[in-house]
Amino acid sequence: MFVFECDGNIIGTIRYIPCRYDLTLTEQLLRPRVAADAALWRDSWEVGRLVLAPQYRSGQDLLRRCLYLTLYELCRQDRVGNLLASCSHVLSRLYRRFGFSVLEKGVPLEGTEKTYSLIQGDPPVVLDMLNDNRFTPTAEPSLAAPTDLVDARRMVA
């Protein structure tokens, strides 16, 4: 779990969960569609619970920066071979702007009327799309942003 901070205020969060424990909605929806030994699962992480306070949702620069810093930090700390997510169709369009591709649309959640888009991202491609030559990581990626812009910090329970 990462927290986005701007000017001393917590403005959002994002969660990354390793896909090897069958804990995530993405795993639940993808397992019937993708073989357990498929390369898609190797070192995969679910991206989820992206939340950003309403007053910070205009434009994409701040969100882009938050996502870049958190993914960069995750990749620095762990093996990240693939990014997976289940999200609404609208949110999948946002993720596609950041280098994700849609695996399948309209995937039903059994027992409900909800449907999801299943998306996938290659970490180097996503980092490149998020960065777009805007940011230069430092030795401490979680502290790379000036404090007046955003500071992404990993939450530890």
Brief descriptors of the model:
26% helix; 157 residues; alpha+beta; disordered C terminus
What this model shows, in words?
The chain has 157 residues and is of the alpha+beta class. The chain is 26% helix and 31% strand. It is globular.
SSE order and pairing:
Blueprint: E1 2-6, E2 9-18, H1 25-30, E3 44-52, H2 61-77, E4 82-87, H3 89-97, E5 101-108, E6 115-121, H4 123-131, E7 151-154
* Strand runs, count: 7
Mean pLDDT across all residues, rounded?
84
Largest sheet: 7 strands, mixed
Shape verdict: globular
Strand content: 25-35%
Please identify the structural class as seen in this structure: alpha+beta
Radius of gyration: 15 Å
Q: What is the straight-line distance between the termini?
A: 9 Å
In spatial order, strands of the major sheet run: 5-6-4-3-2-1-7
How many H/I helical runs? 4
Order of secondary-structure elements:
EEHEHEHEEHE
Parts with pLDDT < 50 across at least 5 consecutive residues? 138-157
Task: Please estimate the helix content.
Answer: 25-40%
Structure, briefly:
The protein has 157 residues and is α+β, with helices and mostly antiparallel strands. It is 26% helix and 31% strand.
